[in-house]
């Protein structure tokens, strides 16, 4: 244990740092039955002017999912009753990127890139973090054919 202490001290120091102007903010909100998950999150991000955020957590349920699977051009859809078991991604008024995993009544789980059409069943309780020090944008930078995350600093 003594051998690990020097390794833990930097972590403890960071974890105990005093808040600054760059301390992340937390936003929490609920989407209601029938609302679109992606559109609802983006609307919140736009209304609150979030420039560099991330999904901290989300729990809830859907009646419909609409996802694009890895390396596929088109999306897929499903209807029924599904639990949201994971939602992650980056959010910004300049463009967001979300991935979702949902499970059915037998525990079968499916996940992919969130598209419009993920309809809330009972609730979607969303918590977002926001960095006041960064700006997220999206641009085609030549590393891939897609508009990828660009991380900048606020001035």
Quick recap of the structure?
The protein is mainly beta and 155 residues long.
The main β sheet shows up as: 6 strands, antiparallel
List how many beta strands DSSP finds: 8
The helix/strand class is mainly beta
| Percentage beta strand | over 45%
Summary tags:
two-stranded antiparallel ribbon; single chain; globular; 155 residues
What does this entry look like structurally?
Residues 4-19 have low confidence and may be disordered. This protein is mainly beta and 155 residues long. The relative contact order is 0.25. It has 2 helices and 8 strands; from the N terminus they run H-E-H-E-E-E-E-E-E-E. The chain has a single domain (25-153), classed as 60s Ribosomal Protein L30, Chain: A (2-Layer Sandwich). A hairpin with a 7-residue loop joins strand 2 (53-68) and strand 3. The strands form 2 sheets. Strands 1, 2, 3, 4, 5 and 6 form a 6-stranded antiparallel sheet that branches. A two-stranded antiparallel ribbon has the order 7-8.
């Amino acid at each position: 244990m003594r051998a690990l202490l020097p390794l833990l001290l930097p972590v403890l120091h960071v974890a105990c740092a005093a808040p600054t102007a760059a301390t992340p903010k937390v936003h929490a909100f609920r989407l209601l039955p029938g609302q679109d998950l992606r559109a609802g999150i983006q609307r919140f991000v736009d209304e609150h002017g979030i420039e560099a955020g991330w999904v901290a957590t989300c729990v809830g349920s859907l009646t419909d999912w609409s996802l694009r699977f890895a390396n596929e051009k088109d999306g897929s859809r499903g209807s029924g009753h599904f639990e949201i078991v994971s939602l992650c991604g980056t959010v910004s008024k300049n463009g967001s990127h979300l991935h979702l995993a949902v499970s059915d009544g037998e525990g079968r789980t499916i996940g992919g890139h969130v598209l419009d059409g993920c309809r809330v069943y009972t609730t979607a309780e969303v918590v977002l973090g926001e960095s006041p020090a960064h700006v997220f944008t999206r641009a085609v930078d030549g590393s891939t054919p897609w508009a990828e995350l660009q991380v900048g600093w606020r001035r």
